[in-house]
Write a structure and sequence with these properties.
The protein has 369 residues and is of the alpha/beta class. The protein is 42% helix and 12% strand. It is built from 15 helices and 9 strands.
């Protein structure tokens, strides 16, 4: 079982960091958790230009001038959990819809025609609506056309992940939401998601069956963002030690307006978000960093080349939303509505290369044969 240090111990460590600690962390060849705390600390606030420069250099060194583009396909907004911050919460009065396999395939086909080759299959957490067999059958339908299929659904068992990997799923994203264990209990009053430890161990179960990539993240706006960054770094480092053949990514979702009108419990402004992204890049130069369409266009454009390696584009967060943009029932309101061609044009204008396909299942097959 994955164990995490006490969340509040991170906050104490962050407050003790000095400007000299920050300068040491910026020059450190192999930063550890101590250096990460310095980069995330209040003492690092005035060093943001230096963090950005170091993050930019490492990103260019490890990833070149490429930015991968992907899109989510929402399969269902039914959910049995009562997460107080989520638009899909079982208590919210929204239009509920679950796509049939044919409908889900049509949504994916729309994205394929638009040029996407990496898609993320997303659903509310309801085993009775979107189960392993559904995901397995959908993956078998889609895997020949897409370079990679990722899922962001309810935490599953090791055997379930093994079945999905065999069917063509290559990546799993699961966000802890908050690593603050006590706050986690308050925010998840009912549903299977209330089990903090089962969720925390999900990346281990997925990595154990050979998934090519595991994505983790924290929902920003729930607890202290600096401490969440420390917990993310600790979690990532622990996973890397045990699953060295696996690729990892980190997402930085900030709370967006959604059904239920949940107000953020703490402010995370764009400067804070930038510092978090830069610190994680310096801490782990090889990790994929994702900035989704939750963020506005100006911020996403400004971050190109500075740390993030993957952007979503042209996203809909409502099941069936690509075929029918008028549908209600979205998980949250999108901040950047630009299409794939529009996003690709901006990336090129900044001197970078938009990539819609950088992986093929045949690569893995040839490696394993």
């Amino acid at each position: 079982m994955m164990t995490m240090p006490d969340f509040f111990s991170w906050q104490n460590q962050l407050e003790r960091c000095s400007e000299s600690d920050v300068m040491h962390a910026l020059e450190c060849a192999k930063p550890g958790i101590g250096e990460l705390s310095a980069l995330l600390s209040p003492a690092a606030d005035r060093f943001l230009p230096q963090l950005a420069a170091r993050s930019r250099d490492l990103t260019l060194q490890r990833f070149g001038r490429t930015t991968q583009l992907y899109a989510p396909v929402y399969l269902s907004n039914f959910c049995t959990n009562r997460c107080v911050y989520c638009g899909f919460s079982a208590t919210n009065k929204i239009d509920r819809k679950a796509l049939t396999l044919d409908e889900a395939e049509k949504e994916a086909e729309i994205l394929y025609r638009r040029g996407f080759r990496h898609i993320l299959l997303v659903s509310g957490e309801s085993d009775a609506i979107i189960d392993v067999s559904y995901l397995e059958n959908l993956a078998k339908r889609l895997c020949s056309g897409f370079a990679s299929l990722s899922i962001e659904v309810q935490p599953l068992s090791t055997e379930a992940y093994r079945r999905l990997f065999a069917a063509g799923i290559t990546a799993v994203a699961v966000y802890q939401e908050t690593y603050d264990r006590e706050l986690y209990k308050e925010l998840h009053p009912a549903g299977k998601k209330r089990d903090y430890d089962f969720r925390l161990d999900t990346p281990d179960r997925a990595a154990a069956v050979g998934m090519r990539e595991i994505g983790i993240g924290a929902l920003l706006g729930l607890s202290n963002w600096r401490a969440e960054g420390m917990a993310l770094g600790y979690h990532l480092n622990s996973l890397r030690r045990r699953f060295w053949q696996t690729n990892f990514s980190v997402s930085f979702p900030r709370l967006r307006p959604a059904a239920g009108a949940f107000a953020p419990l703490t402010e995370v402004n764009l400067k804070n978000l930038s510092q978090l992204i830069f610190a994680l890049r310096i801490f782990d130069p090889d990790v994929g960093l994702i900035v989704s369409t939750r963020e506005e266009a100006a911020f996403r454009d400004g971050m190109l080349g500075l740390g993030p390696t993957r952007y979503s584009a042209g996203s809909s967060t409502a099941p069936g939303g690509y075929g029918n943009p008028e549908l209600n029932g979205e998980q949250f309101s999108v901040g950047d509505h630009r299409s794939l061609p529009e996003m690709a044009a901006v990336i090129r204008s900044k001197g970078f290369d938009p990539v819609c396909k950088d992986w093929d299942a045949s690569f893995q097959e040839s490696t394993l044969s």
